[in-house]
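User: I'm putting together a small comparison set for a docking exercise, and I want a reference complex before I start. The sequence is below, and the ligand is fe (ii) ion. Could you produce the 3D structure with the ligand included, as structure tokens?
Assistant: Of course. I'll restate your input first, then give the structure tokens for the complex.
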Amino acid sequence: MKSSPTPPLDRIDIDTNRTLLNRYRFVEHESLRILAGWLPKAAVLELKCEMSRALWEDAQHVNALYLRLREIQSPAFQKPADAALVKMMAELVHAPDEFGLLLALNNAITPSLIRALESHETATFPNSDMPSVHAIKHILLDQREQRTRLAALLQQAEKAGKITAAARQWEGYIAALLAAAGGVNGLEPRPEKPIAIPACRTEFKLPHEASRDERFTNCGADFQTMPNEDDYENHTVEEFERYSTEILAAETVAIVLYSLPGMPWEFQLDSTRHLYDEVRHGLMGYEWMRRHNMNPFDSPQYLQVFKWRCQFPPVMQYCMLTMGNEVNAFPYRHRRVEAHQKSGDQLSEQFVRYDIADETQHVRFGKRWLPELIKHIGDERPLEKYIEDSLEVWETQYRSGKLPINVE
Ligand SMILES: [Fe+2]
Ligand SMILES: [Fe+2]
């Protein structure tokens, strides 16, 4: 048989493939970390919830790309060689406000990522590179939906007069930096005109306070004494009002996640889930109140809890949350399941049982990661001593309900 000449390569070759997959991974990875850093600052509840969901979904994408990248390069995660792309993502965090950040993300970065994934999906070898195609198809599904959901929220913000000229200017700046990087895949023509840094650029500082929108009127309330558990009706109302405040825990995990970029990827992945779970627990409280004809925005928000935790180093915050708040909640939660079963309140029972499932994971995360975290920050104390010292602060200041703010 006569051999025919080698056909020209019309597909993405494997070296280009890993460079591209690493670029998508980098953009999603940096985006999720920036969303975490900004989470406490975002005041509008729906926006905060969407940011949490988006960053958790982004983490699923980073993980899918991680699993593929580790098969074709080592280490799996690499800083892209393209300085323009690295600069664009490094600048993104310095937005003037959350709307500027989200406009830049939704109108510049996400559409470019979607375009890149769409072309990658068909340009790679369909059989040889099927694992990448599979990941890309699923990422596209999420990213398209994320874009639609966020666009609707940004439109509402526009109508409410919350989008300033500065936010628009920021969107334009990030779009220009992205164009200079040739888009997310780096393959688009790169304009060579200089890019001026806009006056609205605001050096990012990690928030020490959590924002809530104007619908919340009771933000810094004193902890109320809960009605006795025997008083089933009244206690249950308070129980679900308290769930609505768990967004504070999400905001603490967000600070921890943002502050420790050098921790292993699996820690970051677990933390995005932890964070989003707490938002969902908050939403569970809202749903319960709405179903019981209560206005969830009347519920006290206890923002001093977040402010109090922020006085301490991130690892200590994580330790107090997982080994203090979360470990100790189980006997109470199990009593509540029993009480709801006894009274035939199926909704409350289901909500608490799902919560217990999530919280069991959070304690596992704490137990898995605290030894690594303590090593990571170079604390010399043995694990048990570190936990003991952290819990002493938690017992004397938090559990006593005093919540002092020692350092502003
Ligand atoms: Fe929770
Ligand atoms: Fe939790």
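Residues 38 and 397 are 27 Å apart (CA to CA). The mean pLDDT is 95.
User: Thanks, that's exactly what I needed.
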